[in-house]
Structures are given as structure tokens and as C-alpha cells.
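Hey, sorry to bother you again with one of my protein questions. There's a protein on my desk that I can't quite get my head around. No rush at all, and the record is pasted right below.
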Amino acid sequence: MSAKPQSRIFISYRREDSEHAAGRLAADLRKDFPPQQVFLDIASIDPGADFVLALKRGLADCAAVLVVIGPRWLAATDDKRRRRLDSPDDWVRQEIAESLRRPDVQVVPIVLDSTAMPNAEDLPEDIRALTRRQALTLTSRHWSSDIARLVELLRRSPGVGASAEGAPRGPVPEGAKAGRLSRVSATHWGLFGAALVILVTAGLVAFRPSLIGMRTVAIPGAKPLYAPYKTGDVFQECVDCPEMVVIVPEVVETGGGMRKSSDPILKPFAIGKYEVTRAQYYAAGVNIGQGCWDAAGDSREKMRERNSKAPGFEQTDDHPIVCVDIGEIRSYFAWLNSRTGAVRAYRLPSEAEWFHAAMAGTGDVDPWGDVGARACEYANVYDSTAAAGKPDRPAAYECSDGYVFSAPVGRFKPNAWGLHDTMGNVEEWLEDCGRGEPQSESCNFRVVAGGHYREALKDSRRYLSESSNGRKNYTGFRVARFL
């Protein structure tokens, strides 16, 4: 039996502010509540459904609304640089206003990390009552205990705590989750989808296949993905796995116009929506290597003491992992492929794949184009924040992104294909060998790309070669996957 009406938990958030945190919140709540009871637009709206109607229906059936507020929630602007909250058509504002008008709905502001709760005078009149609701802080450092407090609060809420009879509680086995999500979505895929559901019910389809050459496969995760694929489709194969964006190349672009790649012929692939986070990396139980080069040029003694857990500045679980070398990254991939049942499918992206995904069909790796003042909307760069107090090294971009060192992933606008932080934040290891070495798994140097928080991101952003055994507190990685 499905969850009864008036029992849903609705998660309201801004994608450019807190998409990653909202997705993680929804995944954790589904461990304690029936999955269909937690409404998040990306995961809860089936392919082909009317987005507006589905959102209204989800809000109408809810008993609790969680308003996720991150550092960019209040000041987010549209393409004309007008504050979104000031528009009566803003969906986040409408969601909150409608919820506050209903006395039977519990509205809980969820404040992320060190974000301050907005003041009443900063909000439109129809949602100022939000500031009178007791907020709950959700921090990366204490995520599990914060989630436990939220779950306890929701269970005490009328219409939420009592789950429907027969509804599952706790973690759902991966195979069962994929099968159930496939059945929910099958009606939107015609007879082809119905036939697949019958096979799942009969136990004849396994949801951990190799994807090569298969056209009837659902990848398990927050939302099933069916082949044939299209650029921009997103999937996630397990709770600890990276979210992946499908890329189906139409025109091959190699090396960002700088040089030809060693892998110029591109086939469909998937690439991480975000850089791999500390939480994802540590879930693999990989050994922590000692010694990490500092971008600030600290003493050798201090650099020898540094590692991925102590890189020389504060990080949380949602920050990109840094201070890892190629050997340690390969250990992570061994775990990830074992975790998903894939056979060497997850790996580092090739240079050609990375640049194709970073350019996102625009011909330029900079998602802000030629307008340098907009760089801080899309990337953590060497801006006025990082350059403060450094008269001998002025800012490369006259804007402020709010971060001196690395930023949590997903805090900035994505490129045209939905990838975050391809430029800036931390530079990323690639599979290609560097310095003219022939391609092999044991080459001494490998290509890195994308630049980082202390770079001017000029021509050097295109590609550099780093020692495969080197660890740096400004170098991380994102994953790629064969399809």
C-alpha cells in the first residue's frame, strides 16, 4: 500500500544553491520513511510528466515542507541579474508561501553549515513568516546526527510519522530499489517499459549489467535511466556512488583547441556531475597517503605532515577530495566497480572526454563565456576573496565567490550539460599520460585540467602534467564511466 494522502515530506530547494545537499537529504530520509513519501522534484517526477502539475500535486499532499537554505539561496539571481525571490513567479517563493498558508503543514527551515537564517526584512512579505519557524542546522561535519534529529522531529509530526501499512522502512536493497523504481516509471515508457517490468518481477533481469550494446537496461538509483541515452541524463548506481551525467558526443572536440588528445574518437560515456567528495572517497576505505604539496608554498616540514584529511585548510564531507595520487585513486575505482558490480567501468576521464564535457557544446571551457566578471557565478577562482591582503598578487577576476580555498561541490552554477566545477575549485586528474609519454597504466606523469582556486585560469588551465605519485591540496578528480 502506498503512503496515504497528507503524509508526504516535500523538500524545497534552489538548484544553484543546494542541489547536492537536497539530494543527499532526500536519500537519507528515504532510509527512514517510505521512498514515495519523500518528494524531491528530480527523483519524484516521472519522465514525460508535467513538471508544474507534478510539483503542485506533491505540495498539496504534503504534511511537512523542508526549506533547504544554503549560502546562495537568498541572493540567487535570474539571467537578467534580478533576485529570484523578488519575483512572484519564483517557484521556491510559491512553494513556501503556499505551505505557510496551510495550518496543517509543518514548515521547517533547513540551514546548511554556517549559512545564516534570513532576516524578515530580506524576504518578500508573503514568506516573511518563515523567519518565525524554528530552523534546524544541517552540517557536513555532523550530518548523520543532524539527520537523526530531523527524522525524530518528522516522526512526531501529524501525518508524517505513521507510515502506511506495509510501506518499507530502512534501507532498501539495491536490486529491490531498482525494480520498484522501474515499475513506477514503466507506464511512461509504453509497452517496452511494461515488458521490462514483467521481466523484473519474474526475476529474469539483473540490474547490475554491463551497459555496452544493451538497449533495455535500467540503471538503479534515484531515478531509472533507460537506453538509448541522451546527453544530460543523470543516474546514480548506489547511495555512496557519484551522480553521473550521460554524454553522447555528436561532434568530437579534442584538447580544448590546444592540442590533439590521445583519445580523439569519443563514444557515449558518463562523467561525474561533481568532483568526488571526501564523503564518497572515504566510503571506499582507501588508505590515506602522507605528504601533500601546498599551493601557498608552505614549509616542507608542514607539507610532509599533510594528507587528504588535513590538507592545510578546513574541509567538510561535501568538499572535493584532495591530496590523492593516481595509485590511491585506482584503489577507489576498484572499490566503486566492485560496489556497483561493474567490470572496470568506472575510471578517470580521458582528456578528450573531459574537454568535450567541460565545453558542453559551446566551444569554450569557460561556462561564463567572455564576461570575466561572471566567473564567480560558475566557479571558485582566484578572485577578490582569495587575493585579499596580497597586493603583490592581484585578483584574476574582479568578483567574489566567497571562498579562499576549495568550496563544497555544487555551490556554483553548472555548465550547459549540468556539470559543476569543471573550471576552478580543484584541478582534476585525467587518464592521459603527460610530457609525451606513451599511454600506459604506469606512466610517470599524467594530465590534470580545469585549474584551481589559486590559479588565474589562463592558458595553463587547458592542461598540465603532474607526477602520478604527487599529492597536492588543490588537485582532485571526477569519475567517468563506460556506457
About this structure: The first helix runs from residue 15 to 29. The chain has a mean pLDDT of 77. The radius of gyration is 23 Å.
